Amino acid sequence: MTIASTPATPAAPAANPVLRVAPAAPAVAAAHFRASLALYADVSDVAAALAADGDPGFVVVDSRSTESWDQGHVPGAVHLPTALIPDLAGQLLDKSVPVVTYCWGPGCNGATRAALALAELGYPVKEMLGGFEYWVREGFEFETWEGRERRPADPLTAPVAAENCGC
Prior knowledge:
- This protein has helices at residues 26-39, 43-51, 66-71, 85-92, 110-120, 131-137, and strands spanning 40-42, 59-62, 78-79, 99-102, 125-129, 142-144, 147-149.
- It has 167 residues and is α/β, with parallel strands linked by helices.
- A hairpin with a 2-residue loop joins β6 and β7.
């Protein structure tokens, strides 16, 4: 007895991993990205605002430990470790001035926890993307307990021969 075989149906092409889930409608995407810009600031924008003459219109808060702060921090930042925010924010910050929080870098969510704590206390707040790591990697000056330092910009994070990346 022979069993008839049917030709195999060709498999459907694998979905493009980028388009496996269709992009959001433009209005949905615009709302999302507008909200993202309301919540986050990048290192270059923070540095440019701080370097401009006059009041930048916000205060920078370093939410790390004292040991981390001593190792290096953004010049002019307020040192306010996350655990101390409920007790000290009212003494160090003005609720009418937006706050930009940072921690170590993209692998750390300390700035997110600090931003949440400040928002829950009624402060307008953004998180600085990249944290202290990208501040240093982009070649901006920082302070340590020994004084000010600056390292060359990492060409993987900042343009070497231009003032800004043009983003």
